[in-house]
Amino acid sequence: MDFTDKNVVITGGTTGIGLATAKAFVNAGANVWITGRNANNLQKAFAEIDNPKLNTVVSDTSKLSEISILEKVIQDSGKKIDVLFLNAGIATFEPIEKVTEENFDAQFNTNVKGHFFTLQKLLPHLADGAAVIFTSSTVATAANLGASVYSATKGAVNKIAQIAANELAGRKIRVNIVSPGPVLTPDLENAVPAEAKEFLASATALQRLGDPAEIAKTVLFLASDAASFITGTEIVADGGYLNFALK
């Protein structure tokens, strides 16, 4: 797909799906801005992609004051955003009786408030006809043990995206959702033991974990003209996880 000279903003672009998507857009000719909370991680991502079309912004999406930093960077660039990929997210898995207010707030602040207000603040900077993609998850539909708060954040994201698709249709801005299943990202590596990863792989029809680059391809499709009649839709990229797990 050709995104030559298109302008793409990716929140949470230092690792995993965000980094893979940044690589894919840069390789397709786009100018890309990625955000992250940690300057060192951003520098590592910049070195890995090693392309002058990549720009990095230190910005914690859970804080409105730092979303404003991203907004100012885009405003000062004088460019309109063609693709906004709202991808930043965190997850903590534990049973309801062990959830703390701190963990609850951290997940909702990053996964829901961050996406909502990033979209709000960047609306004036979106080109008419732009594409907005939210990262959700199959957990928004599934009822996995220990995922009550994380699942709730993704359910909220889905509804925000669906309403945004209707509200922004007058500007021909398409808003869609990509919901990955189990994908082998650094976050998954750190969050679950080896036996849990083996179980997740076995719970998919394809009998393996996804690769971040595979989710990136889905994002590029949704951002492209090939998806010009698709809005308000959730694309599930899960290797058959939901259907297979329910059998």
TrEMBL record:
One Pfam family in the UniProt entry: adh_short_C2
Keyword NADP: yes
Key words of the record: NADP, Oxidoreductase
SUPFAM superfamilies, alphabetized: NAD(P)-binding Rossmann-fold domains
Ketoreductase domain location: 6-186
Record's keyword annotation contains Plastid: no
Family statement: Belongs to the short-chain dehydrogenases/reductases (SDR) family.
Record-given protein name: SDR family oxidoreductase
Organism: Pedobacter fastidiosus
